[in-house]
Amino acid sequence: MNNIKIKDFEHTQNAELDSWFSDDPKVNRDKRIRETIRYPLLKKQMGLDYLDTSEMIIYDIGCGPFGGVSSILRSKVINRIDPLMEEYKNHYPITNGVAKKAEDLKEELSLADLVIITNALDHFDNPEQFLNELDEYMKPGAFFAHIHAIDNSYSHPHEAHAHNINPELMDYYVRDEFECVWYMDYQHDGITYGWRKQPAFSGLYRKVTGY
To answer: What is residue 89's predicted lDDT score, i.e. its pLDDT?
Structure first.
C-alpha cells in the first residue's frame, strides 16, 4: 500500500469547491460539458456496460455537481452522495443529492446494489475506513465500481487531492470480500483519466462474502 494523506479534509473540500465554479458562466458551462461528455467512456472503463442496473439501488459517492456516471445508467433508485452537495445545488440542478461524507454512510451501504466512485477516493477524509466499511456493510452480491487516476496527489498536484489511490491499495482492501469481475489499468490497457491523461486503473467487484 502507498496511500499518503497530504492535507486535512476541510482544506481539500474548500479547494474542490473552488475548482468547480467561476464567476464566468461560460467557464462553468465548459466545465459541465467537459465532465459529462466523459461519462459514457468512464461507464465502459468501469465494466458497467455489461451490468444490468435497471432494478438496482445505486449509490454514486463523490459524484460532483453534474450527477456522475449514474446519471446515464438505468436504475431503480439513484442516491448521489457528496459532502459538497448543498453548495453544488446552489449552482446546478441536482436530483437525489445528499450532503454527507462517505464515511458516515456505514449501515446505509447495505441498501446499495451498486456503489460507484469516480476518481473521488483521493478527496475522502479517510478512504481506508470507507473501503473497510464496504467490506463490512455491503450485502452479498452487491457491486462496487470505480476508476481512479493512480497516485493523483503526485500525478496531478492540487489542493483538493489529499490521498494517493493505486492498485495496491485497492487490492489490499477488496481482495478478501470481493470477486474482481472487471479490471483495467494503464500498464496493461493504457487507460488514462481526464484531459491530463493521467495513468489510471478501474474495476468492478462483486461482494462474495456474507451469504
So the answer is: 81
- Name the grid cell of 32: 459541465
Nearest to 113 by CA among 78, 81, 85, 89: 78
Where residue 15 falls among pLDDT bands split at 50, 70, 90?
Answer: low
Residue 114's CB is within 10 A of a number of other CB atoms, namely 22
Q: pTM of this prediction?
A: 0.89
Q: Record the cell numbers describing residue 199, joined without a space.
A: 495513468
Please count the structural domains in the chain.
1
Q: Are 177 and 187 in contact (CB under 8 A)?
A: no
Which cell goes with 189? 490497457
Q: What is the CATH number of the domain that holds 19?
A: 3.40.50.150
Boundaries of domain holding 186: 9-207
- Give the separation between CA 190 and CA 184, rounded to whole angstroms: 8
What's the pLDDT tens digit per position in 117-145? 999 998 888 999 999 999 999 999 999 99
DSSP SS3 for 70: helix
Say if 60 falls within a structural domain.
yes
Cα 127 to Cα 52, 57, 105, 117, 123: the distances in Å are 27, 22, 13, 11, 8
